[in-house]
Amino acid sequence: MLIEKYRIQELNDSQLSTHKAKLSGLTGSIANTASVIEKLIAFQVAIPSWALGAGGTRFGRFSIGGEPRNLEEKIEDVGLLQALNQSSGAISLHIPWDIPENATSIKALAAQHGLRFDAVNSNTFQDQKGQQHSYKFGSLQHVDKAVRKQAIEHNIEVIRQGVALGSESLTVWLADGSCFPGQLNFRKAFQNTLESLKEIYAALPDNWKVFVEYKAFEPNFYSTTVGDWGQSLLYASKLGPKAYTLVDLGHHLPNANIEQIVSLLLMEGKLGGFHFNDSKYGDDDLTVGSINPYQLFLIFQELVEGMDAKGMNHATDLGWMIDASHNVKDPLEDLLQSVEAIQLAYAQALLVDAKALDQARQENDTVKAQELLQDAYRTDVRPLVAEARLRAGGALNPIGLYRSLKVRENLIKERGLVTVATGL
Amino acid sequence: MLIEKYRIQELNDSQLSTHKAKLSGLTGSIANTASVIEKLIAFQVAIPSWALGAGGTRFGRFSIGGEPRNLEEKIEDVGLLQALNQSSGAISLHIPWDIPENATSIKALAAQHGLRFDAVNSNTFQDQKGQQHSYKFGSLQHVDKAVRKQAIEHNIEVIRQGVALGSESLTVWLADGSCFPGQLNFRKAFQNTLESLKEIYAALPDNWKVFVEYKAFEPNFYSTTVGDWGQSLLYASKLGPKAYTLVDLGHHLPNANIEQIVSLLLMEGKLGGFHFNDSKYGDDDLTVGSINPYQLFLIFQELVEGMDAKGMNHATDLGWMIDASHNVKDPLEDLLQSVEAIQLAYAQALLVDAKALDQARQENDTVKAQELLQDAYRTDVRPLVAEARLRAGGALNPIGLYRSLKVRENLIKERGLVTVATGL
Amino acid sequence: MLIEKYRIQELNDSQLSTHKAKLSGLTGSIANTASVIEKLIAFQVAIPSWALGAGGTRFGRFSIGGEPRNLEEKIEDVGLLQALNQSSGAISLHIPWDIPENATSIKALAAQHGLRFDAVNSNTFQDQKGQQHSYKFGSLQHVDKAVRKQAIEHNIEVIRQGVALGSESLTVWLADGSCFPGQLNFRKAFQNTLESLKEIYAALPDNWKVFVEYKAFEPNFYSTTVGDWGQSLLYASKLGPKAYTLVDLGHHLPNANIEQIVSLLLMEGKLGGFHFNDSKYGDDDLTVGSINPYQLFLIFQELVEGMDAKGMNHATDLGWMIDASHNVKDPLEDLLQSVEAIQLAYAQALLVDAKALDQARQENDTVKAQELLQDAYRTDVRPLVAEARLRAGGALNPIGLYRSLKVRENLIKERGLVTVATGL
Amino acid sequence: MLIEKYRIQELNDSQLSTHKAKLSGLTGSIANTASVIEKLIAFQVAIPSWALGAGGTRFGRFSIGGEPRNLEEKIEDVGLLQALNQSSGAISLHIPWDIPENATSIKALAAQHGLRFDAVNSNTFQDQKGQQHSYKFGSLQHVDKAVRKQAIEHNIEVIRQGVALGSESLTVWLADGSCFPGQLNFRKAFQNTLESLKEIYAALPDNWKVFVEYKAFEPNFYSTTVGDWGQSLLYASKLGPKAYTLVDLGHHLPNANIEQIVSLLLMEGKLGGFHFNDSKYGDDDLTVGSINPYQLFLIFQELVEGMDAKGMNHATDLGWMIDASHNVKDPLEDLLQSVEAIQLAYAQALLVDAKALDQARQENDTVKAQELLQDAYRTDVRPLVAEARLRAGGALNPIGLYRSLKVRENLIKERGLVTVATGL
């Protein structure tokens, strides 16, 4: 299914006057809305190929219907999102779930949809059919060199696939760890993992980055070998300048101050990018901004402040990706909500009066500092985000349009009701 | 110090046109703003007498200066808040920190400031000078009947004080519990506590309520004898119709779903009221809405929905109180921020399209349900809250006025720099 | 595979003198070892049929080989455990994973292995093939009466199956809840669930119990409709005298004091039984006693104290079940470890000097109370548990025997390497 | 009060035959008990001067009576502990609570009691009388250079005091952080803190170490500027070879895997030492081993394994200190329990069959690895610890002797009932 431009235009036209009225309320009272809108237009969030089907838990999975049956259909789905919001201009592949048989034609297909390929993701947390060694007891950490070797080679193969697609980064998320006290020598597991990562690092093209993702727990329930930002930073520092830490919002212990972690990783020049989602308990992989949107804003406030302090380009110097699972929502609707939540947080962060904040901090005026943050946060920035979409050729109301066009119904018609996309 | 009406008027006048412009943006697009503003005017939050001075932690306390030295000055402070926001029309006393020597004159003083007396609070978590028995090992739970008796009598004395002031409820927060496995027989501690509460309950006037507050931990670090809502509900149910559960937002285990607890307590007819604050780790007693304002909104969404379902009066049928500690902020500024955060959450909850939400739920349309909540939450309702203040005779910008009138500086001049208010 | 008596005898004989020496060290210094051993012999833990194969997480599953392919083989597996430890004399079935085609022959088979049928478990957290209505949005809580009806009927069918097998209790664990704020009306979800449970309750035979299990989160990641002990107790109280709360050790928020919950449920006469396991983060379903064995002991200390206070029979008046998942261990070895951990905690709890503890508590002698608990806990009670096994006809060292008999290798030979048992 | 040798001898004699019987049970079945006992004798735990009086919480403090009124009496108290257990041969001072007026005589007094001075502790989390600048908004992180300067100078003064006493390390625990989002620029706070630490580092004598302690939260409730091991390691790495991380067991987020942190810090050569205590919720400062003794064992297992791998001396190459608070126990009894819990965990860790564990790990034999750990843990090593005390001249049963000698009663007689030791 393709969304024709005129359908977007039609709906936008019918909503334009209301939108413009709301927008003018903001542009009248806020100085820098023009620059905010420009930055919003430039800001693109990568969609993970594994999040286009219904997700599940270990207790089961409930199909949504019309799920993409192959890589081409996944690109088509991201293309739909991009047509609607013009902010999802990249796709993040997962190997071996998405091995492109013909990279050239896949690249061309993506380009037709206005998409580029963001970080490629390796997978050593499951055993694939016909795989020689099992990852039951880890991959890059494994006590057996042969297993490590297999996992290293898989990662190098993923880089190769990524190069062919024009991707420029590799995300390594390891399930490696242990379920029971005693199972693992933590030190040796770290050292094995480091040695393995070094071999992968050596295979990176010059213009590539590798993102070392951390996670506190799950699927291992006693220890994880890249368990927190401190461990990830240790690996990244020992690896070299192309290695960075990747922050997944759901991968922390309860009550962690993620925004402080973000700030310090930026300070160290070692923040590589994000996996956005939201969570209440663990790696719940819920819609971005659905549980704690203020935390998301605080993270973006650190990003804007910290990137500006380093002269970084908001749109291109970090990897912006969603990593979510859609157990009870239509994945495409969920992703539209997630991208919008990210944009809102970013827009609010751009509204913070940085100079006044600096001064309030200099004076230890905690009340004022909070007021400055909340003044930006409480602003209804939806018209700014909508305007950015409008100018970029997207829909004022993406979910509204998605529903009025009956996209899901059409996909089900095209693909069937009982398709199952690869993924979690 | 008193804030004269004309000072408020002056500042309001200078901000009126900007305010009206913002307000009209809302009233133009939202149907029920008039009713929302009315409800906001009626909604009053009680200020705790113990939160008017600088708070501290076990590691120390940093004075703010100009803290109230006695009950009269505490009332004066709440009077200042009420003058500024017209939403703090009640004070919640803590006995024995605030024993009124002459109830009649204290009542008259409060009335001059437009204040009534909300729930009175007993204190059996500290030993008072000259006290016969120590509460080191608990009060209402104590293994020694004589200690329990002393604690019971203290509570009855608090009721007596409350009656004299026109209060109509008693809040019982117990630090009772244990620090070490083995220390306590949980069952006997429960039964002793219940028996004690029954004696206190028997002393309640007909029109009174008793609020049984729960808390997961601190100051006891292994168990608390009223540790969660389940335990509080057990006590309240066994006590009778005048007993209710009181929810303090900071008194839960990590990740607790407080809004669900609120909903179920309302369902059972056993929700008594709130102690508002915010927290990241434990009973941090931070400014309301400073850490997770969306959670606060979700709680108010349950309150509005649940109270409406029972035909309850929002303003009067539950006890609305703040319980916070002010370690790094001017307490009065902090309280102005807290009251505003509560009003914003309440206003947003009033904007939720309840009918559409019901329907979305009926259809399991999770995406729509989230959109409906976030549509209300993302609305910038500050103009509504400001308008409510304006109509009630308060300031459009309470903190701005507080600062321009140099209230703290005046209080320091009047009361001195090294005063210490009673409290934590 | 069957373990012949003489194989057990052989290994026991070779270890007997060492065992007897260790045992006499204990019997010499502790007064009531005879009674402890008797109680240990009587104490049987039910093995869940779904825990006999390799478990998995949402990230994958790594087969162990030789997993039982049907109910008969599951019974055979539990029979192996029972032959080895003589403490696993019951099996807990899960419908529809284990529908017995012929109840009579299945009962006979179980009897041959010395097994009885403990609680039967319903499953409304997955959709079964050909099922009319989906449980994607809940079962007993569902907004649609037809879905609730289907789930109710399934539970009644489970009771029927259980009756045929001689089971006398039904465990209802509901995944019902919500993933997102807004998705659910908590109150209506509670009321629907209660109404549904009432219909199931009405179908219980006179001598049956229903266990209402609670869980804080997963697979729903925002709210669970039976989310904590308070909610479970509300349901159980409203249902009637045959309804009880079931405590699964992994189903709590971080830092919860489970032993206090156990004590209070016993006090209320509403504790029904246990799902034993251990966890560090969430419902990790790890081997009992592998993460925090002291907590397990503290729970048993409450059980022994509380059951004795009510004159309850330790062995029969509560349901003792394991609920674990075996991602990296041989399930049978894991279960042997789990049962032993339970027995050790129970034995230690039996050694607590209850009279002295009472007195220490009466005197608020916290140091002494801790010493009394830790004195029992630090005692090496393994000889007592081994002696109980020996007297009952089991192995002194079950895991040692299991390995020397190459049980897993034999099961793989019999059943194949790539079998997959039903379960999580 | 002094405990005369013959009183210890007397009680030991009366318990000797029972003790010897228990001991021989162990020495008969375990190979390396002689070496374990030797290592236990060498292992000394430093007692913090601030833990000798009743501790408190922000809700109050309940005196114990007989608390030390000055540094001399604190040394006397630690001397009592040392006389009883011969494992508390060091004291850790806290400046300015314990400024020695005459270092020479204080050193001599300590020597009389067999005590040396362990790490000295600075205090910039409270304002001291007459202090020019306030630490309300931090010390080493402060936005104002003058405040940082004052805090730096205080630390250098503490080093000076420590040198005079023969201490060789400085522990820096900072309460620095923030209570509210917005209050702090995390990056600048880190950089200010680092710069300040560098000045302190420069003042360290050649043979000194500085320990950078981290803490997740409290007294700041939004962020801590040395918040976790990752941050502490960053500071320590940037400072140089004399800087190390100090691990306080209670300073982590819920569910943190502390033993893994310990292992990795050892791997990096950056583990400096410990503050032992136990906790259920936060920095509860409870008796060591009172909540989760298995975790303590797992930490010691990592310590023994990791230190042995580096050829480190268990007794001297790390700083072993207790940091606890005694709200409901006699501090001296609590400390006796804490030291014993540490010794037990250490002894158990020494019993682990390291070679077999290595092999089990090499074979991914998780069941066996757990068995090996739990085999050591379940062993009743109390006779080994008692024997170590006996040989070193201490009491077989320290708490028993403490009570039979009526030490607390004597201290109250000497010092009075209402003394208050400095501390928390």
Description:
- 4 copies of one chain form a homotetramer.
- Chain A starts with a helix and ends in a 9-residue tail after the last helix.
- Helices cover 49% and strands 10% of the residues of chain A.
- Chain A has helices at 5-29, 33-42, 71-85, 103-112, 145-165, 186-202, 229-239, 258-267, 293-309, 331-351, 354-362, 366-378, 382-392, 398-404, 407-415, and strands at residues 46-48, 56-57, 60-61, 90-92, 116-117, 120-121, 169-172, 177-178, 209-213, 223-224, 243-248, 271-276, 319-322.
- The mean pLDDT of chain A is 96.
- Chain A is globular, with a radius of gyration of 22 Å.
- In chain A, helix 1 crosses helix 13 (382-392).
- The first copy, chain A, contains 15 helices and 13 strands.
- Chain A has one domain: TIM Barrel.
- In chain A, helix 9 (293-309) links the parallel strand 12 and strand 13.
- Chain A has 424 residues and is of the alpha/beta class.
- In chain A, the strands form 4 sheets. Chain A has a 6-stranded parallel beta sheet. In chain A, strands 1-4-5 form a 3-stranded parallel beta sheet, covered by helices on one side.
